[in-house]
Amino acid sequence: MVKEATKSLVDADWLESQLGADDLLVFDTTVYMSRTAEGQIDVQSGADRWAQGHIPTSGHLDLVGELSDTNSELWFTAPQPDDLVAALMARGIGDDTRVVLYDSQLHMWATRAWWLMRSVGFTNVAILDGGLHGWSAQGRPVDDEPEPDRAPVSLTVGQGMGGFTTKDVVKLAVSNDSVCVLNALSADNHAGLDMESGSGYGRPGHIPGAANVPAQSLVDTESHRYRPLDELREQFAAAGALDGRVITYCGGGIAATSDAFVLHLLGQNEVAVYDGSLREWIDAGEPLET
Q1: How many helices (H) and strands (E) does the chain have?
Q2: Which end of the chain is least crowded, N or C, by CB within 10 Å?
Q3: Which domain holds residue 15?
């Protein structure tokens, strides 16, 4: 059994004790998504809400504009590695920096930024368990101060410790029993039952042969903290995701990173995220099953 990489997950006690350290950067990564009356997805950066109240010394890291390929037709496509490194350096993230990420929801925005950073070899990054919800619920301080100025830094592109994969690779994986394709969306989405609610992606169902571990099921909805690792291990083992290669997907490569993050905590290191996920798969006319 690979030792669990729990240093990638930190609690509020630890973070509060470290706030103000010269080498520590804290970022809110929240994005807000909603459905319009026409069924389209509306995406808004969480920067405005960050400005109203955030963990002291933190900044807002924009997954909409800063850490996505804005030339892609698909939301949140990962930038090219050099572009991603340049964006991280512009926010003060360098070789000697420690980073803690949080969001105001159920971690999936923080894990998306975490996965992006790991994909270019930056591994000194952790998720705040409980996010802003848990921090505030414990009566810890929040403020509306601007982000502190950051000194210029250098960040070296390294060997990715987890990365992204493509539609063509997923198509091959569908017929390969040694690869677990894992859907991080809801059980209703997986079963093709979400179309009437307007929360589907244009066609019902999941990638053929995929297992299902919903990202929302990984987190206690009251505390916003991840469930105990023993429980999570059982859940992923039942899906066949602890042996061999795993490809996680969702609607657009966001919730999939929460599954990938927990697999990392459980010592599963052969994980890739299908960046295009269902939006690309469905747009390309690829098959689904229910």
Answers
A1: 10, 12
A2: N
A3: 6-137
Q: Based on the fold, state whether residues 128 and 167 are members of the same structural domain.
A: no
Beta bridge partners of 33: 43
Establish if 146 belongs to a structural domain.
no
Please check whether residue 26 is in contact with residue 103, taking contact to mean a CB–CB distance below 8 angstroms.
no
Residue 226 is classified by DSSP as: B
Is 154 within the bounds of a domain?
A: no
pLDDT at 1: 27
Indicate if 132 and 175 belong to the same structural domain: no
Residue 149, in any domain of the structure: no
The pLDDT tens digits of the residues spanning 66-75 come to 999 999 999 8
Neighbours of 91 (CB within 10 A): 20
Scan for tokens 């240093």, then name that residue. Answer: 7
* One domain, residues 51 and 120: yes
Contacts of 113 (CB under 8 A, 6+ apart): 27, 29, 61, 63, 67, 101
**Same domain assignment for residues 15 and 113:** yes
Q: Do 177 and 132 belong to one domain?
A: no
Strand partners for 180: 246
Tens-place pLDDT, residues 124-157: 999 999 999 999 999 999 999 999 988 889 999 8
Number of domains in the chain: 2
* Average pLDDT over every residue of 193-205: 74
pTM > 0.90: yes
- C-alpha 175/C-alpha 194 separation (Å) is 26
Phi/psi of residue 90, each to 5°?
-65, -20
Residue type, 28: D
Domain contains 131:
yes
